[in-house]
């Protein structure tokens, strides 16, 4: 059972390496053209906002 699982994983890795990454990805890139590189226009991130000032509280009287 473990040998069967190992063989299946090994075949999947070979398929991914030899077929998907070397043939399918470049062909899909060619077919989609510019649409492959979505988002084409990246919005600029807003600038950092200043930290809010800490609230100044009056010292509380000690409870006796």
Automatic annotation (TrEMBL):
Pfam families: MMPL (PF03176). Keywords: Membrane, Transmembrane, Transmembrane helix. Residues 55-64 have a biased composition (Basic and acidic residues). It is a multi-pass membrane protein. One of its GO terms (cellular component) is membrane. InterPro entries: MMPL_dom. Residues 3-48 form the Membrane transport protein MMPL domain. It is found in: Membrane. Residues 43-64 are annotated as: Disordered. This is Membrane transport protein MMPL domain-containing protein. It comes from Mycolicibacterium fortuitum (Mycobacterium fortuitum).
């Amino acid at each position: 059972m473990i040998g069967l699982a190992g063989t299946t994983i090994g075949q999947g890795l070979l398929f991914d390496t030899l077929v998907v990454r070397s043939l399918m990805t470049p062909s899909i890139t060619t077919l989609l053209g510019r649409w492959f590189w979505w988002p084409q226009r990246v919005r600029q991130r807003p600038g950092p906002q200043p930290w809010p000032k800490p609230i100044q509280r009056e010292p509380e009287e000690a409870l006796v």
